[in-house]
Amino acid sequence: MAREPRSGEGGGGGEGDRRRGRGRDRNENRQERQDGDDLKDKLVTINRVAKVVKGGRRFSFAALVVVGDQKGRVGWGAGKAREVPEAIRKATERAKRTMIRVPMREGRTLHHDQIGEYGAGRVILRAAPAGTGIIAGGPMRAVFETLGMGDVVAKCTGTTNPHNMVKATFAALGRCTSPRAVAARRGKKVSDLLGPRKDAVAEGAAPEAANV
């Protein structure tokens, strides 16, 4: 007498195949999320710290990382762990959760000058013409490179502590706005604020028409 096939045997309609199918779907979704994650991260600084305990000192590492998509979004994070890779991983994860969007003129520079302060840190950010490049110190340069800003002049007039410099830079970037946002908030057109000749340049439609 022929034996009847058990559940999961035979033509592929069993529960085992369904489980394998769900596993493939999860792997494909995970791969899509990884492929779509095109963020760039930069290690700003890493510091070795020590905790004095009974019997000696315990060393750990504190990392400061900035993350951005080079398309107008950037974030920073700090992490601390017993090993360097783990501290960097923690800082990167926190940076991804605190990303902000910064409006840029023509996709390359600021719309206006801005000053940022945090603690003893004070930075000045200035818009720059095309071809200037990034003129800034190490911590601020890392922020602008991950942000995707191509032309900017920045100066630190306060402390050179990397943490305060990065936080002051983000304080300045967080207050940056665009003519479109100001016009929408005031119920006007961009041309009413900047004039008809500068309207197209402010929106990035025709950068060669005028020089803001």
Automatic annotation (TrEMBL):
Basic and acidic residues bias spans: 24-39
PROSITE patterns with a match to the protein in the record: RIBOSOMAL_S5, S5_DSRBD
Residue ranges occupied by any S5 DRBM domain in the UniProt entry: 39-102
Pfam families, sorted: Ribosomal_S5, Ribosomal_S5_C
GO cellular component: ribosome
Positions of the UniProt region annotated as Disordered: 1-39
Entry keyword set: Ribonucleoprotein, Ribosomal protein, RNA-binding, rRNA-binding
Domains (record comment): The N-terminal domain interacts with the head of the 30S subunit; the C-terminal domain interacts with the body and contacts protein S4. The interaction surface between S4 and S5 is involved in control of translational fidelity.
SUBUNIT field: Part of the 30S ribosomal subunit. Contacts proteins S4 and S8.
Record-linked PANTHER family: MITOCHONDRIAL RIBOSOMAL PROTEIN S5
Role: With S4 and S12 plays an important role in translational accuracy. Located at the back of the 30S subunit body where it stabilizes the conformation of the head with respect to the body.
Similarity comment: Belongs to the universal ribosomal protein uS5 family.
Protein name: Small ribosomal subunit protein uS5
Name of the gene this protein is made from: rpsE
